[in-house]
C-alpha cells in the first residue's frame, strides 16, 4: 500500500514517517544522476549548494521544511535539497553522451472545463518502475497561517509535485528536456509547491512568471474556473491558454516558442501522445456537453502506440511505465489517485476537502 503522510505539525514528520522511502529516493537518484549526468553523489550535493541562497531568499520556510525532512530521515540537508532540484539536474545538466538513454518520463496531462461541467485536472505520471515504491501521498496543514491545506502525490523527500488544495487550485507536471539551469529562480518542484499554497490559479501564475523557473518543465495549473499551461526553460516562461472547448493538453515537448532554448526531443512519442489525447477528447466532446471523471479515466487507459502510449508500459528497451493516474475535480475539491497502470490499478486513494 502507498504510504500516507500527514504533516499537521512539523516537517520532521515527513522524514520520520517516510524514512525508508526517502532513503529509496536518494538511492534511486544517485544511480540516475550518475548515468544521465555523469555526477556522483558528492558532486550532486555540490550542485545542490548552488540553490541554498535562492531558497533562503524565495522560500526560507521551504528550506526549513527540507531541513526537518533531512533530520527525520537521518540524512543531510543537501541530500534533500538535491531531491528537490532533481528536475534541474536530470533535465538541465544531462551529458552529451549519457551512459543510459534518458527514456524515462512520459507523462500526459489534460485539463478540461467545458460548458457547465466541473473543472477537471488530470494526468498519467510515468517514471521508472523502481521509483514507484517511493511514492507517497503527502497532506500538509499549517496551523495559524492562511496557507490552504493541500494534498500532493510525490516522491518521498520532495515537498512539491502533483496535487490540489482546499481552495480548489491544482497542478500537474510534464518533464521537458532543455539544456540549462538558473540557480536564482524557482526550482521546478518548489514551484509546484508554491502553486499548491496559492489561493487562485492567477496568483500562482503571477508569482512564477515574475521570478521564473530554474529549469525546463510544463506546469498545468487549474482552478474551478479553468486551466492555464505554464511552459518554462531556464531563460523563458510562456503561457498556454485553454482552447475554445476549455481544454489544455500537454506531454513532454515544448509547444510554444522559447527564444534561445536548446530542447532535445528525447521522447519521440511525445507529439503522438498529445495528438492522440486531443483526438480522444474531441471525439468525446462531439457527443457530450461535458465529461465525467469516469470518461476522463477511460481516456488515460488508451494504449495506441503500445508500449509507449498514453498508458505506458515497461517493455522493449524502456524501464518506465505509468505509475499513477490522478483525476482532480477542482469544482468539488476532490481527487482520485489510481496507482499502477490505468488498465491494472493496484490501489486507489481518494482525497476531499
From TrEMBL:
InterPro entries linked: C45_proenzyme-like, Peptidase_C45, Peptidase_C45_hydrolase
Protein's name in the database: Acyl-coenzyme A:6-aminopenicillanic acid acyl-transferase-domain-containing protein
- Sequence ranges assigned to domain Peptidase C45 hydrolase in this UniProt record: 119-342
Amino acid at each position: 500500500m502507498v504510504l500516507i503522510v500527514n504533516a499537521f505539525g512539523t516537517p520532521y514528520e515527513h522524514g520520520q514517517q517516510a524514512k525508508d522511502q526517502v532513503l529509496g529516493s536518494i538511492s534511486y537518484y544517485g544511480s540516475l544522476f550518475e548515468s544521465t549526468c555523469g555526477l556522483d553523489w558528492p558532486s550532486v550535493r555540490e550542485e545542490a549548494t548552488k540553490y541554498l541562497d535562492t531558497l533562503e531568499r524565495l522560500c526560507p520556510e521551504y528550506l526549513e521544511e527540507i531541513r526537518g525532512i533531512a533530520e527525520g530521515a537521518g540524512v543531510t540537508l543537501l541530500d534533500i535539497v538535491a531531491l528537490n532540484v532533481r528536475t534541474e539536474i536530470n533535465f538541465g545538466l544531462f551529458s552529451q553522451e549519457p551512459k543510459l538513454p534518458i527514456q524515462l518520463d512520459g507523462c500526459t496531462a489534460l485539463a478540461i472545463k467545458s460548458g457547465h461541467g466541473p473543472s477537471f485536472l488530470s494526468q498519467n505520471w510515468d517514471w521508472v518502475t523502481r521509483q514507484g515504491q517511493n511514492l507517497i501521498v503527502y497532506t500538509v496543514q499549517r496551523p495559524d497561517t492562511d496557507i490552504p491545506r493541500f494534498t500532493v502525490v510525490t516522491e518521498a523527500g520532495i515537498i512539491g509535485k502533483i496535487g490540489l488544495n482546499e481552495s480548489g487550485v491544482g497542478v500537474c507536471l510534464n518533464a521537458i528536456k532543455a539544456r540549462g539551469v538558473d540557480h536564482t529562480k524557482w526550482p521546478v518542484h518548489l514551484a509546484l509547491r508554491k502553486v499548491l499554497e496559492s489561493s487562485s490559479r492567477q496568483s500562482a501564475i503571477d508569482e512564477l512568471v515574475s521570478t521564473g523557473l530554474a529549469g525546463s518543465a510544463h506546469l498545468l495549473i487549474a482552478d474551478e474556473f479553468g486551466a492555464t499551461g505554464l511552459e518554462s526553460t531556464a531563460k523563458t516562461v510562456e503561457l498556454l491558454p485553454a482552447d475554445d472547448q476549455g481544454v489544455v493538453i500537454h506531454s513532454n515537448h515544448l509547444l510554444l516558442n522559447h527564444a534561445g532554448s536548446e530542447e532535445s526531443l528525447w521522447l519521440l512519442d511525445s507529439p503522438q501522445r498529445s495528438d492522440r489525447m486531443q483526438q480522444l477528447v474531441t471525439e468525446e466532446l462531439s457527443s457530450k456537453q461535458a465529461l465525467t471523471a469516469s470518461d476522463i479515466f477511460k481516456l488515460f487507459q488508451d494504449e495506441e502506440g503500445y508500449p509507449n502510449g498514453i498508458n505506458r508500459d515497461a517493455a522493449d528497451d524502456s524501464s518506465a511505465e505509468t505509475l499513477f493516474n490522478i483525476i482532480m475535480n477542482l469544482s468539488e475539491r476532490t481527487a482520485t489517485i489510481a496507482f499502477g497502470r490505468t488498465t491494472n490499478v493496484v490501489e486507489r486513494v481518494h482525497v476531499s476537502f
